[in-house]
Amino acid sequence: MRPLLRLLISMLPISVMANPPPHSWQSLPPIPDPIGFAAPFAGTHNKVLIVAGGANFPEKSPWQGGTKIWHDRAFILEKPDAQWRTDFHLPRPLAYGVSISTPRGIVCIGGSDDQQHFRDVFLLQWLDGKLLTQPLPSLPQTCANACGAAIGNTLFVAGGQTTPASTSALHTFWSLDLTSPNPTWQTLEPWPGPARILATAAAHEGFFYLFSGADLTPGPDGKAQRTWLNDAYRYHPDQGWKKLSALPRPAVAAPSPAPLLNPTSIAVLGGDDGAQLHVAPTAHQGFPKTPLVYDIPTNLWREAPALPFSLVTTTVVTWQNLFVIPGGEAKPGIRSTEVWSLPLSQP
């Protein structure tokens, strides 16, 4: 049976498939780091998979007083059965930005280091065995923890926050036409719902989708506290925004952009539902493994059989006829070196 068909059958509701067949997710060579990274830039250019930057706690976990460290290391995988190439670097340590793969390279948008958030946007390119960067127009303001996707040659970025100490999320929606003679970020009408960070984006047939995320408000201690969201919206440049059916649960920081399982289904792969917010870090059971599948024609959601992983703050990359999930955060403060792949069709 073709892998994608097998996956789609396995995504049928449990009431229909009492004994669904095994998932088709397969592991690729792990990222060559002892710990792994949360929120690296990831994408593909000139047939290679690139994972660059990210943040982790290399010495001690955060509840033991460990310090989060941002990284500039970059890794190249030329084939799914190859070994990662190392010794590449970003211009500076960076994480928590938006990655969008384009024919010109991976567009890396915003992000942060241990001191600040950035407006910078640049292309990450693999040319003649070298990892190169090329500047693009900067965002209208500093931004990290946003989400984004491309419709054709136009990039869209939604939400985020301006500084590490921000107690409010951005209610902003920006676009950049890469084919414009003088490309400039445009400020568009935002979605008709709360501001948010760590939402999940998707793009399909000219529409941009925005799922879940978390709003920010000042807490009693003056620091940001999160409100978990499960709302959903769709945008078309000619039609504006439309509110969609809400997700069955929040899915904060799910791998983004959400992959298309078929021409009518978008899968939000896990995400943080906030159910363990007050659980001791050592007792945390990991994030939900249940995908939430949105059916576009019916505007309905359903749950699908569990994934073999539960990773957040990571990117979905389409590469070598695969969906790829490279690393991310397995539990609060705990990173993963795992790289998971799903075949799109028979090789």
Notes on the structure:
This is Galactose oxidase. It comes from Phragmitibacter flavus. Keywords: Signal. Pfam families: NANM. With 347 residues, the chain is mainly β. The protein has one domain: Kelch-type beta propeller (Neuraminidase). The chain contains one helix and 26 strands. It has one helix at residues 3-10, and strands at residues 26-28, 41-45, 48-52, 55-56, 69-70, 73-77, 85-89, 98-102, 105-109, 121-127, 130-136, 147-151, 154-158, 173-177, 186-188, 200-204, 207-218, 224-236, 240-244, 260-262, 265-268, 292-295, 300-303, 317-319, 322-331, 334-343. Strand 14 (173-177) and strand 15 form a beta hairpin. The chain is globular.
In short:
The chain has 347 residues and is an all-beta fold. It has one helix and 26 strands. Helix content is 2%, strand content 41%.
Structure characteristics:
347 residues, mainly beta, Neuraminidase, four-stranded antiparallel beta sheet, 1 helix, disordered N terminus
- Rg from alpha-carbon coordinates: 19 Å
Overall number of strands = 26
How many structural domains in the coordinates? 1
Task: Tell me what portion of residues adopts beta-strand conformation.
Answer: 35-45%
Low-confidence stretches: 1-22
SS-derived structural category: mainly beta
User: Could you say what the CATH topology is called?
Assistant: Neuraminidase
N-to-C series of helices and strands = HEEEEEEEEEEEEEEEEEEEEEEEEEE
| Cα-to-Cα separation, first versus last residue | 12 Å
CATH superfamily descriptor = Kelch-type beta propeller
Shape: globular
Protein name: Galactose oxidase
Pfam families: NANM
Keywords: Signal
Organism: Phragmitibacter flavus
